[in-house]
Amino acid sequence: MKSRGWALIAAASVALGLAAVAASHAATAAVRVMKVRLGGDVEQTRIVMDLDQAATGKLISDGSDGRAVLVLSGATALSDLQGGAQGLVKDWLVDQTGGGARLQMDLAAGAHIKRRFLLPPADGIDHYRYVVDVALAPTGMATQTAAPPVLNLPPPVTLATATAAVAAKLRPQIVPARTTTLTLKKVIVIDAGHGGHDPGAQGQLGYEKDINLAAAKALKARLERSGRYRVVLTRDADVYVPLESRVRIAQRAGADLFLSLHSDSGPEPSLRGASVYTLSDKATGRSARFVSRDDWFMKASLTGDRGVSDILFDLTQRATRNRSAGFAQILVGQIEGKQTLLRRSQRDAGFMVLLAPDVPAVLLEMGFVSNAEDEAFLRDAGQRNRLMNAVGDAIDDYFAESTKLASR
Ligand SMILES: [Zn+2]
Asked: Higher-confidence residue: 193 or 98?
């Protein structure tokens, strides 16, 4: 058995997990999105996010396809900020993701994010502003752009001094008032494990890859019925998709949650049950005593090149890992009673597909195809749908919970 290093660590207890979430909230509260203002017209629209410190913006999508997504790395939106149409922006929302505060905008046809920049305190304004300009993409001959036009924005908040009283006044505000209903949906990426020339585990009746795909489609249907989610599958047919591509699909989609579906196999035909995996912290000191007990498990691991996953692991934010653990707990609770669970069913692992930075990610092993009862269960459409309905309920619960946290 090779040394597992950080890859296999005891499943964090509920108490530990919650403590870590609380700690990360305190630690990441450094940069806050205090307020969002919009100005401009159908020629050019400017969005200004007032920040109490400098932050770096990461463009996920420039909006050419109708939806613009930008993440302020490490920043915090203490509650969801949203508002109505202004100029080229049809709808917008600032909310919290694992990687930071995220701005999502539905844009008018032909519009895109033209430029974005951080303005340091200046001209009597003593806080940072992250500015995003939306404009129509040039048609035909390229037009020369002069200096940015002056846009009429609502007057900024004046920060007199950095006292506690002032800080209290800077609680997030909703500007303009909630005049529209929220049309932006949470993005769920469902990853059906294996596919094509990679069949996964083999049971008595067939391959893992087919069960995974059928389950992914059932979960997609369940989630879309609710009208609350946009669902992206990493594959919707029997094709081979490299692990790196699956990770990239999740990032490009601006995923709020990444769920990988697999079916297990083990050396013991009696071994059965579902289990849930999240990416663990690198607490090597704690890991050693659990390695021998779980050797059988690592046979199903997809970790691949350890060097590559170590690098990716370092990019993954602690806050994202805590969110993953939170969802994993809810998921285990919902699966209980629908499918047998392994004795310690929530484990931490270094699965490649869980390594997308900034995207909360969980891998669900739905059961063992090497166990006759589990295989029959997983190949039965009715049972499988029931299990996926439970997973859908867990996703509902997870987002209801994070909304509650955000609005406290
Ligand atoms: Zn698998």
From this structure: 193
Per-residue confidence band for 12, with pLDDT thresholds at 50, 70 and 90: very low
8 Å CB contact between 352 and 248: no
What residue type is 367 in one-letter code? G
Using the mean position of ligand 1's atoms as its centre, give its distance from the Cα of residue 262 in Å: 4
Interatomic CA distance for residues 299 and 289, integer angstroms: 18
CA of 301 to the centre of ligand 1 (A): 8
Distance 180 CA to ligand 1 centre (A): 43
**Residue 17 amino acid letter:** G
How much distance in Å is there from the Cα of 302 to the middle of ligand 1?
Answer: 8
The CA distances from residue 386 to 124, 337, 404, in Å, are 60, 11, 27
**pLDDT tens column, 109-133:** 889 888 887 877 766 677 787 888 8
What 3-state class would DSSP assign to 209? helix
Chain centroid offset of residue 185 CA: 13
Distance 208 CA to ligand 1 centre (A): 7
Please name which of 107, 83, 109 lies closest in space to residue 94, comparing C-alpha atoms.
83
Residue with tokens 């630690």: 27
Residue type at 394 in one-letter notation:
A
**How far, in Å, from the CA of 261 to the mean position of ligand 1?**
8
Å from CA of 315 to ligand 1 middle: 24
136 and 63 Cβ atoms separated by less than 8 Å: no
Say whether pTM exceeds 0.85.
Answer: no
Burial of 140 (0-12, 13-18, 19+ CB in 10 A): exposed
Are the C-beta atoms of 172 and 78 separated by less than 8 Å? yes
Ligand 1 centroid from CA 199, angstroms: 9
DSSP letters for 132-181: EEEEEPP-SSPPPP-SPPP---PPPPP-----HHHHHHTS---SS---S-
Gap between the terminal Cα atoms of the chain: 47
Burial class of residue 268, CB neighbours in 10 A (0-12, 13-18, 19+): exposed
Ordered alpha helix ranges (H), 44-153: none
